[in-house]
Amino acid sequence: LLTFLHLLQHKHPLTFQSKGCKIFFALLLAYCMYYAGYRTRIRYSTDDLYVKYSFLHNRFEFADLTRWNNDYAAHFKALETISPYLKSIGISSTDLVLSLPDVSNNNSLYFMDHKGFTGFNYSINDSNTIKLIIKTGAKYLILNDTTFLPQTAIAPFINKQIGRYRNVNIYSLKEI
Length: 176
Description:
By secondary structure, the chain is α/β, with parallel strands linked by helices. The protein has helices at about 1-10, 15, 20-45, 50, 60-75, 85-90, 105-110, 125-135, and strands spanning about 95-100, 115, 140-145, 160-165, 170. About 50% of the residues lie in helices and about 15% in strands. A 5-stranded mixed sheet has the order 2-1-3-5-4. A hairpin with a 2-residue loop joins strand 4 and strand 5 (about 170).
């Protein structure tokens, strides 16, 4: 765009300074600002009126983002404020944790400000994998979705619950 404007200014100065060109680029700038505002707002809240009644509204994208935002609120939102609670029950920030279910490489760990493991690149349906993670140093299991339990091999590892914070259950993996 800058190259085009530079070329237009030097090769066609009358066109560059014309009222029509200025109006076109002002409208283009206004559209880009509106689009950027829409894209930023829809990421965080699909209930925003700016998003709901926008001419950019795409019902398929809106449905997907609504599902994602609802899932985030139901499972991951509590992890943003769980750090003080973890410290209060004796889990230091240097203790490694296994955070499930989380298929990202570190989202839930980042929210909790902890180091550890997630379901990323691990088969959580295999109890040997979980045993290996424990041998590697994981001391606690942070579970943010209890509907996840029957589907996996983590049932033997949830015998010693040491805490609960909103929708998050915390289990000790020591002595397993």
